[in-house]
Structures are given as C-alpha cells and as structure tokens.
Design a protein that fits this description.
- The protein has 134 residues and is α/β, with parallel strands linked by helices.
- Helix content is 25%, strand content 37%.
- The chain is built from three helices and eight strands, in the order E-H-E-E-E-H-E-H-E-E-E.
- The strands form two sheets. A four-stranded mixed beta sheet has the order 1-4-3-2.
- It is globular and about 45 Å long.
- The two termini are 30 Å apart.
Length: 134
Amino acid sequence: MTISLSGVHVVVDDVDAALAFYRDTLGMTVRNDVGNGAFRWVTLVTDTQPEIGIVLSPPHAGRSQEDGDSLAALLAKGALGMVQLRCDDLDAMFDKIASAPGVEVLSEPASQPWGVRDAAVRDPAGNMVRIEQA
C-alpha cells in the first residue's frame, strides 16, 4: 500500500486576487475552476509536479457559518499555515513576487541556519509563502 500527496488547500478571502498571484506571478496552471452556489474554488498545478494541486477556496466554502467566520478571522490575522515552494532561481522569482499586487515581503532571499536559501512573502490573502532555492 502506498500513499502520496495529491493536494493542499489554501484559504483565501479573494479567489481572483489569489489566482492572479499563484497563476500570473508564480506561473502555476489552472487545472480546475469550479463554482458551487455562491462559492468558487480553483485548483492550480506546476509543470514540474502536475499531480499535486493547490486548491484556493474562501473560508466559508463547504463550512458552517460559524466555522467559516472562525477561519476568516484566522486568515485576517495571518495565522493559517504556510505554503512552501521551491524554484531554480530564487532571486529572479523574488523580484517578480515582490512587485506583485497585494504581496507583503516578510524576508528577502537569505541563507538560513537550517541549510536552505529562501525568502518569505504573504500572498494577497495574508498566507505566508516561503520559496527556497532548489
């Protein structure tokens, strides 16, 4: 029996703003764009790992009002988990990301004590995104 990662969910308050960041700035490809009533979620993949999707969805999609409200409050604080990515040219990617609308730079490219060279930003929804040099 084997198991593998198929997707990661990223909660966002504005799917279109997040889509512009993950698709247009990071270069991911939309695999699915699904609407269900008042909610929409988008699955993106990378060319190098098309079997792993990043799913962008709003806090209230598929949740109770109370749970959605709680998740939205955590998102607004920037208190949700981070997304970790890897690229082959961190400096070029950072330059592109740092100038993208709605992005907050947390740390510029630097060598870390744990052995990687990376940078950190907040996406337009406030989620931390760390990108390391491959």
